[in-house]
Amino acid sequence: MDYNKLFAEEIVKNLDGTMSLESIMGLVEKPKFDGQGDLAFPCFSLAKSQGKAPHLIAGELAERIKHPVFEKVAAAGPYVNCYLKKSVVSKDTLQTILEERAAYGVSDLGQGRNITIDFSSPNIAKPFSMGHLRSTVIGNSLAKIVEKVGYIAVGINHLGDWGTQFGKLIVAYQKWGDEAAVKDNAIPELLALYVKFHEEAKDDPGLEDDARKWFWQLENGDLEAEELWTWFKDESLKEFSKIYELLEVDFDSYAGEAFYNDKMAATIELLKSKELLTESQGAEVVDLTEEGLPPFLIRKSDGATLYGTRDLTAALYRKENYHFAKSLYVVGQEQTLHFRQLKLVLKKMGYDWSDDMAHIPFGFILKDGKKMSTRKGKVVLLDQVLKDVIELAEKNIEERNPALANKAETARMVGVGAVIFHDLKTERQNNVEFSLEAMLRFEGTTGPYVQYTHARACSILRKSGMTAEEITAVGLDDSYSWEVIKDLIAFPEMIQKSFEQSEPSVIARYAIELAQDFNKYYSHVKVLEDDEHLEGRLALVFSVTVVLKESLRLLGIHAPDEM
Ligand code: ARG
Fold first, then answer.
1. Taking burial as the number of CB atoms within 10 A of a residue's CB, which of 190, 297, 387, 396 is the most buried?
2. Are residues 45 and 190 in the same domain?
3. Closest residue (by CA) to atom 8 of ligand 1?
């Protein structure tokens, strides 16, 4: 039940059409202080249009509004404060969640339309960086959030599997490479070859020419070049898929940059026919001077295409094949200019749907306040980080609950969940400090804390001996349960907000608040006492398990029943 809307409707009824339901709903807010009720309506804009003092209007409105769900409606200065009737509202809310379960909070905003989400998108033959980890967990969560509000998510891994660096890699491999070593330890070996290439090229400029030649051969279908490239790509994907398996992330498409090779000529033709290609120092570009941005590079003087050419082609391909309602790119903030240019070029081409494309940027992962670097051969191997965190979680569980049945599986859920939650609880544009200890704490604002609260609520239900089917909600009116009920009511709104802002942190923070309010409730109220409110309290505990589990699912995290 949307109580904001109900309150707004009651206000509208008493205004004789001077303000629309929509604009009133936009103004209804949470009162700033305790004791001022549950909903507040400020009368300032009404006062302006009616030429009356706001406190007079508030007084009149408060006098007139009556509804069985409202305990009391009272004016406080320029505000109309509404006090919900706890017993009615709590019963109604709990009954809804008992019935809807995991579907609680679902909406049909998207009406089955597609949203493409370009996320993760690591570069072949290079380590999976911390930035790619952020893109992966944010994108994966966004995919779940958009589906919750009725869209279909199309997850695309736009692999960085093309570019002049493959010419360099081929040269380096032919000169210094070792097949067995690459098979054994692909990414560090390939990275080492790449680093060596750059070192040697300082003294031997001929290497760069060789690299350019090999990349040209690759672009023109040379068999030897293609065979090596395919091999590098397969070995890299094997490594990446270890990470995806641990995180339980999958994609609808792995169409990376190379996928667009045979489609770029058409893009260039299209640009030409629209008279948008100009020459600049031998290269072909789309001029963006009018828009105040540097030119967007389409083709280099040697005929080679670029990252931007492939993204332009990919955008056209995605529109044509997925008919997206929105197209999201979960990519670090250092590519902001690139995506602004990309959208503007499409706009210049006459495609208004470029307005539906959005870059979803995010900050860095820091270690001791410094950017975690994967360059200079200093590789942080992510699947190792994940394995370490799972091991730590296992130790933790061993100490807390040695009798637990499936410890290894639970440790995986807790360890991986800790890493994901740590990332998603921060607004994505901010930087995140990397700390295994901080992630794994069972107290504070962590994934394990939310999971543990969920498991605790599950255990109360087990103790009660009752199943959700047997519980009938009854109204509750104490202040501790009211805090929890208000959180439960807010869930659909939170989903909506996280969708609108493409911001999983809204849900992560919400889950922490719900967990905290539930723990407060649990420490003050005897849930299992046999009185007339027992089923109401059990309904509340059950509802908390449902909403915590669903919140975690939307973040890409499991909620074990026991831990
Ligand atoms: N591979 C790129 C990188 O690691 C990210 C690609 C993002 N997606 C895109 N369509 N440009 O920087």
1. 190
2. no
3. 158
